[in-house]
């Protein structure tokens, strides 16, 4: 490592620029370990991350290693080294191998000097970076200053990367829930229409679109204007009453009429509230009674036909065989 002040700044700037190119957490770990090992000419560099950053006491697990020597996979939370760094957020330097409460700093019996630096932000403890060298008195002020500055920069980047990934995961969950909700609404046989706080159509499911003649161009249109010719005043008044009196209105029956079709229905209207109880619109759930009656009539016809068939076969087949045929035609 060149000793001039200008060279130190250049090395820090170059290594820092490599960090800032990355957003992926694992890529940042790689850059951190690779650069600190190469620039300081250490023999071994290992990054340990806390298993539970939220707790003051947590084991540290090996996450990235560079060098020809093995290192412990885990450093216990009872380690003096981990405890001191976690509590003080200060680096530990051992210039030579001698008896010390921080003996965990030497990752291999051949190593003669080492340094451990905390990775943290004011809001989060992330882990510990440990570097070792075969040479005693290897980690001088110059190397310490570089490592101290670089790990502070890396700590902020790693924390930001974690937050970014958590945000991505959270958004992914929201999108999955939205798709799940959309699938449920789309598969409903009942007709669902919602409005915003201004009484404009905000959403409708596919059943409502098909049977009420709604399309994407009507999103944002006033509910009353869209249905003024197809619903009677009693129904339109129910929408206003639910909003003005802030109450559910259940089981209102009416007829949806257009030039092409008529549909008997019953509907439930409910105010939609935000977290603080603020009015955000209406939820309108409509049951197509005309369709239900047709389905019921069809079901009754099928049941009657099965009964007739059963009577026909009962005259010359046993009751058990006939029942089996009815259950598994």
From TrEMBL:
Residues 177-217 form the PAS domain. InterPro entries: GAF, GAF-like_dom_sf, PAS, PAS-like_dom_sf. It holds the Pfam family PAS_9. Gene3D superfamilies: 3.30.450.40, PAS domain. SUPFAM superfamilies: GAF domain-like, PYP-like sensor domain (PAS domain). NCBIfam families: sensory_box. This is PAS domain-containing protein.
